[in-house]
Structure formats: C-alpha cells, structure tokens
Amino acid sequence: MQRQIFTDEHEAFRGTVRTFLAKEVLPHYEQWEEDGIVPREAWLAAGRQGLLGLAVPEEYGGGGNTDFRYSAVLAEEFTRAGVSGLALGLHNDIIGPYLTGLATEEQKRRWLPGFCSGETITAIAMTEPGAGSDLQGVRTSAEDKGDHWLLNGSKTFISNGILADLVIVVAKTSPEGGAKGLSLVVVERGAEGFERGRNLDKIGQKSQDTAELFFNDVRVPKENLLGELDGAFLHLMTNLAQERMGIAVAGIAAAEHLVEITTRYVKEREAFGRPLSKLQHIRFEIAEMATECAVTRAFLDRCIVDHSEGTLDAVHASMAKWWATELQKRVADRCLQLHGGYGYMTDYRVAKAFTDGRIQTIYGGTTEIMKEIIGRSLLA
Ligand SMILES: Cc1cc2nc3c(=O)[nH]c(=O)nc-3n(C[C@H](O)[C@H](O)[C@H](O)COP(=O)(O)OP(=O)(O)OC[C@H]3O[C@@H](n4cnc5c(N)ncnc54)[C@H](O)[C@@H]3O)c2cc1C
Predict the structure, then answer these.
(1) Ligand 1: which residue has its CA nearest to atom 43?
(2) Exposed e or buried b for every residue in 35-45, given b needs 16+ CB within 10 A?
(3) Of 212, 243, 256, 285, which is the active-site residue?
(4) Burial level of 268, CB count in 10 A (0-12/13-18/19+)?
(5) Which atom of ligand 1 lies closest to the CA of 367?
(6) 346 contacts 332 by C-beta, under 8 angstroms
(7) Ligand 1 center to 278 CA (angstroms)
(8) Cβ(202) – ligand 1 distance below 6 Å
(9) Model's pTM, two decimal places?
(10) How many other C-beta atoms lie within 10 A of the C-beta of residue 216?
(11) In 10 A of CB 262, how many CB atoms?
(12) Active site residue 192
C-alpha cells in the first residue's frame, strides 16, 4: 500500500539521510561495531548535516521543526541501513524534548548549541541495578546542600554512557516522596566524583556504547536542576510517549526490511531442485509476515501523524511500542529460520537484525509494562 503521510519535503530529507549514511556511516560501520563505540567525529558530521536537534528552535542552532515525521524518516533509514550505534534518535527524540521543554532560558543557551552541533552528546539515566521497570525503586539521591545538590548512587545500562557529555539523571530529592520525590538533575562531563564503568558487552547493537555510571559525592550546581523540583515522574510520563514511538517506528521498519530481504532470499535459494519460494509453506510464511507488517504499518502511520499533531496519548504510544516491537521480534526469528544455517552467520543481515533488534521489547518500557499501562487505563 502506498504510504500517504509524507510530503516531498519529507522525502527530500530521506534522501539527505541516505546520503549521510552512505558517506559518513556505512564505510566505517564495521570498524565501529568492532570498537564497541562510534567516534565523536560521526556526531560532529551529523551536526554539520543538520541531523541533530531537528526540533530545537533555530535560535539555539536547531532545525526548528517539531514535525515528528522527520524523526520517523531518520529512524526508518537508520534501521533499514542496519545502523544502531550512532544513536541520533536517542539524542533527538528522547533527550531533546527534556531540554527544549523543561530547560530555563539560561540552560538552553548553555546546552542546546552543543546539542545541535554534535559537540555535546547526551544520555538519560533512569535505570539502576535495583530499579528498571519500577522507577519508584530509584535510590540515587540528590541532597540539597544550599548552593548545590550532592549526588550519590549508580545507574546501569545507560545508552551513550561512555560518550555522553551531559547526562540527565533521575534522582531522589525528597526521600519520603516516593514517585513524587524524584527530580531530574544534569551532570556534565568532568564533574568530580562522576565515573563511568566499562562499556557493557551486549549480544547486539555492538557499536552503541552502554555503560554503568557512578556518582560519588558529585556536587551538581543548583542551576542544573531540570524542570520542577520533585517533578521527574510527571516529566518522564510526558516524554516517554515519544520515546516509545521512536522505538515502535524502528520496530516496524526493521520488520518490513527483513521481509523484503527474506523474500529475495527464498526466490534465489534452491532446495529439492527448485527455489524455496515454490514451496507452499515458505509462501505462507512470507504471506503471513507481509500481512502482519501491512496491518501494523497502517496503525503506526496513523500514530506518527497523531503524534506530529500532538494528539497521540500514552496509551496508543504504548500499543504501538509493544505491538511493533513484538512483531519485529517474531519476524526476525522467522526470517532467520527461512535463511537456514546462513541466517545464523553474523555476516548475514538477518542474523544481525535478530540480535540488534532483541532489545526493542525491553528498553523504553518492556512489553509487559506497556500492557500494564494500556490495561490500567481501560480498566480504571
Ligand atoms: C541496551 C540497553 C540500553 C538501555 N538504555 C537505557 C538508557 O539509556 N537509560 C536508562 O535509564 N535505561 C536504559 N536501559 C534500561 C532499560 O530501560 C531496562 O532494562 C528496562 O526498563 C527493564 O528494566 P530491568 O532491566 O530492571 O528489568 P525488570 O524491571 O527487572 O524486569 C524483568 C522482567 O519482569 C517484567 N516485569 C517487571 N515489572 C512487571 C510488572 N509490573 N508486570 C509484569 N511484568 C513485569 C519485565 O517486563 C521483564 O520481563 C537500557 C537497557 C539496555 C539493555
């Protein structure tokens, strides 16, 4: 089915992203995967190309365009290219809204120009060894010391954890407040007592640096509180819908791409004297996956448009996230099976998509948590 949500401007932007990937990313990508990290130069190149801070107002160096369809194009093209390491979606769509929506004028002037140029790489640190799905279990604390916050605790699984220059940290500011006692504080590279653990060894997304972060008596300036004191929970709830949409958009794009690759493969690969595609079972497999992708695409495109117009609610973003990522997981598994032994070889695209994509149903809120959000809202 012809997609109807993009204009010529969006398609021109798609061309720019493809050129960027071909020139600045794909020639180096294997090396980045081996290194477990991308060089800072790649972020600067993305900044020069105008791919950072798409929604940041122009006066701070951004693109000044809050149409989420541009973010969707970026996520789709990175996914189709099999690139997970250079986490522009995390920076633009997950962290960006915290800075544009919550920062004071002084903070915007301090942080946004570097955010848009690629000089300031960002991360958001919610998860702790003892608190993932349940953020009420956060133990990292920021104690009010008059002229600064004294930050103590640790975070884990933080994307961009090694590269980040600016980390938004979820910390307890009112010990008795539960979910209502959490705030967002910004820790900058070089702060005394801020240390990073090793780059964690993952089964996929090898060039994406993911790390533990440690805060030992870090003095965070008072002017680095982001948003309302004790207001983190509300800020997170507001921004998590966009995070989930970004992940969902990548999920359906990955599933569609896998079906395309596998359709080509089964036409070429022969068994029992004829192409695999001549076997009815194989045709049914492709037919089922293509149908599931087409149905999901219609829902996702509607969610993308609604989100661009500011009308998508948290429940529909959660539906999009769990549905598209679970589809991606199922499709990756079935496509790998259809590739036989070749599907298990890391130089085959389907193998990489299988391991790179597996995290999608876990981060940004697990499938189970998405169903909790939806169920609670329906049964309230
Ligand atoms: C590669 C990677 C990158 C990440 N990037 C970041 C990042 O940048 N910033 C950040 O803050 N975090 C990040 N995370 C953390 C991620 O968001 C968490 O791993 C995720 O939210 C799940 O938390 P958990 O690992 O503690 O699992 P748990 O919360 O311990 O969950 C374990 C299992 O129990 C289930 N479960 C938990 N509660 C319920 C419930 N109420 N009902 C039903 N089932 C439930 C879960 O669905 C899951 O299946 C990242 C993780 C990975 C692996």
Answers:
(1) 368
(2) ebbbeeebbbb
(3) 243
(4) exposed
(5) 47
(6) no
(7) 42
(8) yes
(9) 0.97
(10) 12
(11) 27
(12) no
CA 324–ligand 1 middle distance (angstroms)? 18
The alpha carbon of 262 and the centre of ligand 1 are apart by a number of angstroms equal to 31
Residue 162 CB less than 6 A away from ligand 1? no
Per-residue pLDDT of the chain (380 residues; tens, 9 = 90+): 899 999 999 999 999 999 999 999 999 999 999 999 999 999 999 999 999 999 999 999 999 999 999 999 999 999 999 999 999 999 999 999 999 999 999 999 999 999 999 999 999 999 999 999 999 999 999 999 999 999 999 999 999 999 999 999 999 999 888 889 999 999 999 999 999 999 999 999 999 999 999 999 999 999 999 999 999 999 999 999 999 999 999 999 999 999 999 999 999 999 999 999 999 999 999 999 999 999 999 999 999 999 999 999 999 999 999 999 999 999 999 999 999 999 999 999 999 999 999 999 999 999 999 999 999 999 98
